[in-house]
Amino acid sequence: MLREGGNAVDAAIAGGLASFVSEPLLASAGGAGMLTIAPDGEAPVVVDFFSEAPGRGAAPTDVPRDFVSVLIDFGSATQEFHVGRGSAAPPLALEGLALASQRYGRLPLEACVAPAIALARHGAPLSPQSAEVFRLLWPINVLHPDTCALYSKDGMPPRSGERLAIPPMAALLETYAKTGAATEFRDRLLGEFGRTVGGSLTADDLVAKPQVVAPRRFEVTLGDDRWEVLGSPRLGGRLIEVIVSALAAFDAEAEAPSPMETALALAHACRAGHRAKDPGSLLGGTTHISALDQYGGAASLTLTNGEGCGYLVPETGVQMNNFLGEADLNPDGFFLHAPGDPLPSAIAPTIARTKNGAVLALGSGGANRIRSVVSQVLRAVGAGASLYDAIFAPRIHAEEKDVWLEMPERGEPDQTIAALREVFEHVHPFPERAFFFGGVQAVLRRDGTSEGLGDPRRGGAVVSVNGPSQTVVAVE
User: Fold this and answer.
1) Which of 17, 233, 237 is nearest to 105 (CA)?
2) Confidence band of 280 (pLDDT split at 50, 70, 90)
């Protein structure tokens, strides 16, 4: 898209649509997302196409919800998810990307959809990390034989290097490219995910539209610069502000802190973010794309499908989300949100910039670790670190009683663990850089030069077009 004269928005949209094929469990036309846009010289905006709670205009039914529990093993941590037809919320991904293309892109939507159509028809080779996602989430994908058959020929998770073709999705995207609408797709939702078959959706739920809103904005001093941070107007943006502000206060007060003291400060800041969340924050799998363009603009796109609910939208090759089955979203019990209420979302597509022209676009997958890892990378880059050093630094995530931390290249490891055990009941050290901590995909323009880095924790990649000083894209 960039080579064809498109801008950062076009690049993000095209990458996002392609991820529906290459990462179909984490990003999907059956899911949702959010796109933060900072055009050069224009007001920043957020295209918010996250889901609302279903059930508007619901008629009584005796059909019980199809809603089951699945435990996913991440190795050093396990997590419970709820899936099934009843876990799916109304999707808005296709509508949101079409709106962003129409208002903020430079290329026609058809150009942005074309790569995804080709991948869906001919197959996208699975990276090792995408294959690992299938392995982790395979208990969800064997709930229905059609879902299992779409991804596998032998009943086992697809392997690294296999080409995953989804021909029904190609047909869906061809129609979408021409019209910018998903009418036929949405018409099929009630038959598979409506209340009469154990789902949660009603016809009234399917009239929701994406919104263009102002980003959450705050300013913070990091290093020698004052940074303006633009991000999600929902929960994720607020939590980033809490954590980054706490880290900036520590940096301003600490004099030559030791690695142990720094790790402890990171853990306290992450726990502050945990305590600041609403009564629930969206967990789940995500895909993130950051882009800078030759026009001075930046875009930060996060897409999510949760982990997928295990069921397909018929004749589309699209697996629906399981947003209603995320445990953190419903701490007091499931299905308590009022119909039509925006679901709280912890995704955090973020752009930070200074008055002297530095621009950083970043975001991450990683469920409720998103707020922690985005804040840590933003703080490090703001203080002058390279993207490489900021993204490869060992990470920490903390909640009320637990703290998780990566150990590779960590200074004072024994002292750090001992100090954390004085504060937290449970300390979970990871011997390697881990998928659990998400993947921060970031691009940075500073001092006239652009750089990008895709996080290896989740198979990130970076593409530079027309030289390092002009355009760059980082994508999970």
Assistant:
1) 17
2) very low
Q: How far apart are CA 286 and CA 452, in angstroms?
A: 19
Residues β-bridged to residue 429:
405
**pLDDT recorded at residue 469:** 46
Distances (CA, A) of 425 to 74, 273, 416, 418, 419: 20, 18, 14, 11, 11
Residue 328 pLDDT class (50, 70, 90 cuts): low
Render the burial of 423-439: b for 16+ CB within 10 Å, e for the rest.
ebeebeebeebbbbbbb
Are 54 and 189 within 8 A, CB to CB? Answer: no
pLDDT tens, residue by residue, 13-43? 999 999 999 999 999 999 999 999 999 889 9
Q: Of the residues 36, 147, 286, 316, which is catalytic?
A: 286
Instruction: Tell me the residue type at 198.
Output: G
CA-based torsion, 410, 375, 36, 134: positive or negative:
positive
Average pLDDT on 176-188 reads 91
Q: Which two tokens stand for residue 251?
A: 């940096």
> Residue 332 CA to chain centroid, in angstroms?
25
Residues whose CB is less than 8 angstroms from the CB of residue 75 and which lie 6 or more positions away in sequence, other chains included: 434, 436
pLDDT at 238: 92
pLDDT digit string, tens, across residues 417-472: 999 999 999 999 999 999 889 899 999 999 988 999 999 998 888 888 865 445 56
Who's near 36: CB < 8 A, 6+ residues apart?
Answer: 44, 45, 46, 215, 230, 231, 232, 299, 300, 301, 349, 350, 351, 361
Name 369's Cβ contacts closer than 8 Å, sequence gap at least 6: 395, 397, 404, 436, 437, 438
Tokens of 420: 């954390």
Amino acid at 231: G
Residue 285: pLDDT band by 50, 70, 90 thresholds? low
36 flagged as catalytic:
no
* Contact of 205 with 55, CB cutoff 8 Å: yes
Residues 6+ positions from 354 with CB-CB distance below 8 Å = 225, 226, 227, 228
The DSSP bridge pattern shows strands 163-164 and 211-213 to be: unpaired
Nearest-CA neighbor of 471 among 177, 97, 106, 96? 106
CA distances from 23 to 1, 79, 151, 373 (A): 20, 20, 11, 21
- Continuous H helices in 28-124: 93-104, 109-122
Confidence of residue 368 (pLDDT cuts 50, 70, 90): confident
Q: Which residues of 252-271 are buried (b: 16+ CB within 10 A; e: fewer)?
A: eeeeeeeebbbbbbbbbbbb
Q: Give me the pLDDT at residue 322, please.
A: 95
Pairwise CA distance, residues 473 & 297, whole Å = 12
Which run of H or E residues covers position 131? helix 128-141
